[in-house]
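Fold it.
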Amino acid sequence: MTCEETRLRVADELFGGARSDFDDELQQHLTACDSCRAEADAVRTTWLQMGRLPEPEPSRAVAGRFYAALHAWEQAEQTSQQASMKPEARGIWRWWPSRPVLQASISAACLAAGLFTGSMVAGKKAPASAASSGEIAQLRKEMSGMRQLVTLSLLQQQSASERLRGVTWSYRAEPDDVQVLSALLQAVNTDPSVDVRLAAVESLKNLGESPVARRGLEKALTKQESPLVQISIVDALVELQDKNAAPVLRALNSSAELDPNVRQRITLALPSLQ
């Protein structure tokens, strides 16, 4: 085994698991060659020291990059809306995607790049103090706010498919996010698309730990004209075991104009809510 081959083998074995012992053939060469043995010891020591380095924390510059990415997303959204009204518009923003979901994805990618860069910079500095933990908590809060912003923006789009994507984004919201809950309840009550209303009911069921979601579903039940949406709400209330919904179901069941399929579902549901 040559010295060049030895250097490669040492690097391979350390990279594969930072072993403390090498195989017999490699060990024999290291025993016979003082130069390679010294170099291998130095590489192994450096490798083990690198493994003891603390986990890098984001630098204070990350927050600034986050707001810059968010600002770019907001500006791009406004520009794309203007471009859709004026096809002749020109400029660099014509390359920005018009769909909010793609815009949000690009912004999230920019944020991830900022976090990675911040982590690399922080890795060269001293271990993070207690203030860094507070910064990370603040970043998490800002990420939650960004998810809320995207959800609310999509739920206000004219396209039903975009509003459906907004409902999908709502699954990432915090259970106690009142603004997202209110937007979902408004979708259940007023959205012209039955598909969007059905999807919003499912999302509210997912957030069913919130009293706001439960009470909102109870009130929405009496406002529905679609039997499909009514049945979906009944099933959600049963799955959530919302016993406060029993009086609402009995009152709706007494309506002479109630769809027979909805009446049958309510009749089956009431015993489980007693």
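The chain has three domains: 3-51, 54-155, 173-274.
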